[in-house]
Amino acid sequence: MKRWLQWGMVLMMLTVTLGACATIGEPEPTLYKRLGGREGIRGVVVKDRFTKLTPAQVEKLKTNAADQICDATGGPCSYLGKDMKAAHTGMNITEVDWNATVEDLIKALDKRNVAKKDQQELIGLLAPMKKDIVGQ
Predict the structure, then answer these.
(1) Are 73 and 31 in contact (CB under 8 A)?
(2) Measured between alpha carbons, how far is residue 36 from residues 55, 58, 135 in Å?
(3) Least confident of 6-10, 21-25, 81-85, 91-95
(4) How far apart (Å, rounded) are the C-alpha atoms in residues 30 and 130?
(5) What separation in angstroms does the CA of 7 have from each of 2, 4, 11, 13, 15?
(6) Alpha-carbon distances of 22 from 14, 26, 38, 45, rounded to whole Å
(7) Inter-CA distances, 51 with 46, 47, 56, 57, 58, Å
(8) Rounded CA separation 133/98 (Å)
(9) Residue 33 pLDDT > 70, yes or no?
C-alpha cells in the first residue's frame, strides 16, 4: 500500500510539472523582432517631412532614430545620440508637427503590416519623448 502511495505521489508531481511546462510555451519575440529588426525600423523612421535636409543629414537622422527605437524595443543597438531636449532645442516643433509625424509613422507601420498591438507598444515607448521635443 505504501508503495502505491509513493508511485501515486510521483505520478501526481510529474503531471503537475509537465502541465506547468506545457503552459509556458515559447516567449513572445521582442518588439524589435516584431517590427522587422533593424531594417524594418529603418524603413519607417523618416518620411518626406524632412525635405529641407541634405541626404547626409537624412541618413544621420535615420541612423539615430533607428538606433534609438532599436534600443528601446529590445534590439541589439545602443542609442548614443543627444538626449531629445538637446537634439530639438531651437527647432520650434509644434503639437501639429508632432501629431503629423506620429501619423506618418502609423501609416508606415500599416504599410508594413505591423500589428496594431505592436504599433501601440511602439507609440507608448515614444510618447514620453514628446515633452522634450515639442516647443523646444
Answers:
(1) yes
(2) 24, 21, 32
(3) 6-10
(4) 24
(5) 9, 5, 6, 10, 12
(6) 12, 10, 32, 39
(7) 10, 9, 12, 10, 9
(8) 8
(9) yes
Residues in the chain: 136
Identity at 122, one-letter amino acid code? L
**Distance (Å, whole) CA 37 – CA 5:** 53
d(CA 16, CA 133): 52
Give the model confidence (pLDDT) of 72-117 as tens digits. Answer: 999 999 999 999 999 999 989 999 999 999 999 999 999 999 999 9
Alpha carbon 108 to its chain's center: 14
| Spatial distance between the Cα atoms of 122 and 36, rounded to a whole number of angstroms | 13
Q: Where are the beta strands (DSSP E) in the chain?
A: none
Residue type, 20: A
What are the cell numbers at 54? 541634405
